[in-house]
Amino acid sequence: MAIKRLFIANRGEIAVRIIRAAKGLGIHTIQAHSEADADMLAVKLADEAVCVGAAPAKESYLNIDALMAAIAQTGADAVHPGYGFLSESPAFVRAVEAAGVTFVGPSAATIERMGDKVEARKAAEAAGVPVVPGSKGRVDSVDDAAAVAAEVGYPVMIKAAAGGGGRGIRVADTEEELRKLAPQAQQEAAAAFGDGGLYLERAVRSPRHIEVQILGDGTDAVHCFERECSLQRRRQKVWEEAGADCLDDETRATLCASAVALAKATNYRGAGTLEYLYDSATNEFFFIEMNTRIQVEHPVSEMITGVDLVQEMIRVCGGEALSVRQDEIVRNGHSIEVRINAEDPAMQFMPWPGKLEAMTVPEGDGIRFDHFLYEGYQIPPFYDSLLGKVIVHAPTRNEAIEKMKTALQGIELKGLKTTIPLHLALADDPDVRAGNFHTQWLEPWLDAGNLPTGGAS
Amino acid sequence: MADIQSPLPGTFYHKPSPEEPAFKSAGDAVAVGDVIGLVEVMKTFIEVKSEIAGSFSGYSVDDASPVTAGQVLATLD
Asked: What pLDDT was estimated at residue A166?
């Protein structure tokens, strides 16, 4: 049944994005907010708003009972969860479904399955999607380790079968090294976890993070090509692109087809993303996980394909078939997004929840600024630091970088400290210009002092 | 009597983690640089350090409560 009254169970820039998409479809919007968010932009833009609890997220945006009460009270017939918060919570989806309300996303069962790393890996393998080759189960002897390594290929990563984190991880390039390192790993695993069992998998050195945007209506699925998101700090993406210029056409086609295969195999409904590690040395990609929500960086895919991902997910979850066929989704040019965070890059990215005194936004052809700011807005300190995203679109990657520089130079957010200086420095970096980076690139670059620090604003 | 103020707006915590005791109790000696609590700001935890020495008399706000920049978090005798 078509959605008429959409409840937005999120905040910040994504809530604004969802309201705009819903209004474009003629849908009545109901914005949830915490006590600390009563004056946020999404509340002002929505047709109506409802307070769901106190400032801490666990009492409001993560409070399933409070959200369900607000959904019932406002007569919403659908819920958009945005990203983060409860967007990938099977418990929330079950509560929404039990209330006879439409969840704008996949089923609770799909979220549960893809949220479990082991199950997701099995589903990927069953759909023919390449995963990082590894041992089938635990490995107990050095000879077994050597046999497995010969199969998965060097370099191999040796991990403790028990426990997690980075403890006891070693990388061997040859069998000789493996025979030296495996006993050490066994001892360390035994000492740390009381279990000397090992797990082996192929080590991908200096991997790129490449992901594929998919859309499904429960029966059919399509892709909107890939994104390159290797520039990360503390596992948070800071700069994202579509497409990934490091891929040749054949690899791109295989990669995107593999994502569609998994989406179809799971009867996926809504927008989703399959994340991969890409080894540019061997031109291989390996599935790592699937995100069953709209992502922060979705606009770059919209810019190169012209597909409105948020509107499309609302339509398919309202029961419509996909509005576009795969052969109608064409790549056009290059897009880059940077995340504008309320952090001071000159002070180790210290959060800076200031008050926005005056704002100049960048404008121009191929420039988009998704944000939740207005003059006089006091940034609340209770949530993450994302203020907005600058997105540019141009015929080529080089032109997109130039346009990004122009856009960033055209922004003024008086009263705030933001990550704009980081993005300007990245836009001028020769490695970034050459597309020569990977997931382990940005942090050493920062450590090497590539940003002016102390006192700079 | 001296005040320790919050350096930033956020959520103030008395304890390093929910399972641990508070950083300070009434009567504890406080040295310059001692951590008396944490302020969570935008998902980042910042240590609140005392800039003065004295004897801890108590927290001025509840554990896990919202605070503004400059708000008094604790007092020393």
From this structure: 61
Residue-level pLDDT at B10: 93
Q: How many domains does chain A have?
A: 3
ipTM, two decimals: 0.81
A70-101 confidence digits (pLDDT tens): 999 999 999 999 999 999 999 999 999 999 99
Report residue A6 as tokens: 């959409």
Give the rounded distance of the alpha carbon of A220 from its chain centre. 23
Residues 6+ apart with CB under 8 A from B69: B6, B7, B8, B9
| Closest CB to B41 among A36, A55, A381 | A381
Please tell me the distance in Å from B28's CA to the nearest CA on chain A.
30
A263 and A393 fall within a common domain: yes
Domain range enclosing B35 = 2-76
> In CATH, what number is assigned to the domain containing residue A11?
3.40.50.20
Other CB atoms within 10 Å distance of the CB of residue A264: 16
Residue A188 lies in a domain: yes
Pick the residue from chain A with its C-alpha nearest to B46.
A350
Residue A151 in any domain: the answer is yes
Residues A193 and A313 in one domain: no
Do A389 and A340 touch, CB atoms closer than 8 A?
yes
Question: A246 and A375, same structural domain?
Answer: yes
Enumerate the residues of chain B whose CB falls inside 8 A of the CB of residue A382: 10-11, 42, 66
Are the beta carbons of A361 and A395 closer than 8 angstroms?
A: no
Same domain, A186 and A310: no
How would you classify the pairing of strands A198-202 and A170-172? unpaired
Q: Decide if A234 is catalytic.
A: no
Total structural domains within chain B: 1
Residue of B nearest to A35 (CA): B66
Burial degree of A224 (CB within 10 A; 0-12, 13-18, 19+): buried
What backbone torsions phi and psi does residue A87 show, to the nearest 5 degrees? -65, -25
Cβ A351–B8 below 8 Å, yes or no? Answer: yes
Same domain, A267 and A345: yes
Q: Cβ separation of B11 and A381 shorter than 8 Å?
A: yes
In B9-38, the residues whose Cβ lies within 8 Å of chain A are 9-11
- How many angstroms separate the CA atoms of A424 and A420, rounded? 6
Q: What is the CATH number of the domain that holds B50?
A: 2.40.50.100
Do A323 and A192 have their domain in common?
A: no
At A457 the pLDDT is 39
Angle between helical axes of A64-74 and A90-98 (0-180°, round to 10)? 30
End-to-end CA distance of chain B: 4
Query: Does residue A256 fall inside a structural domain?
Result: yes
- Domain span at A31: 5-104
Q: Do A351 and B42 touch (CB under 8 A)?
A: yes
Q: Is residue A45 part of a domain?
A: yes
Residue B45: partners with Cβ closer than 8 Å, 6 or more residues away: B13, B38, B39
* Radius of gyration of chain B from its Cα atoms, rounded to whole angstroms: 11
pLDDT at A165: 57
